[in-house]
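quick one before i forget lol
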Amino acid sequence: MNPVDPSTLPNLPILIGSSRLAPYLASCGDDPAAAIRLYSWNIEASTAILGASAALEVGIRNAMHRELTTYSTRESWWDSLPLRSNEDDQIREAIKFLERRRGAGRWSSGHVVAELKASFWESLLVNRYHRSLWEPALKNAFPNFTGRRGDLHERMERLRLLRNRAAHHEPVHARDLMVDHRYMCELGLYVDADLATWISSNSRLPDVVAARDDTIDGRRPTRF
């Protein structure tokens, strides 16, 4: 089925809601047709963000897990390394969830890693862990990074917040998404050149951004 121009569907503004549609109307000079197309484009951009983010986040958490495992000499590194109560609580909650879902002893360290949120891995890069985790282990997860740990933490936080906006259907249309895309590729490169190549060569985000004006003007069909 060919995509239908959303501006021709009269019930969409009601279904989306006036408060949610308001920032799109403001960006389009109160043109309702352009606003509904921009809203559709925002969904398309968000799905592209989520795709690139998925590749990046898995690469980062696996690299950090690998180095913490090497440093502690055990895959359950959380049992021997000094974690704050906040991070330790997240580990324990993940284990409790796996115990309920998979059964006692029927899960691996990889399952725990997969359950932990992106904010957990980001939290391991704060000042508190500089000597205990960053210097002996985590800096090795980013072999191509030569800057300050705080800058790396800030970059990861920015991209996590962007991913969260995309996942919760919030506006991303006012951002410079090509800067965000560059940051994703650069962060991937800090981990491994192949990760950066995978993201940059597969991400749809640059094409979606390039098609924004044509989409809003109705010259290009909206897609998710």
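fyi Residues 7 and 33 are 5 Å apart (CA to CA).
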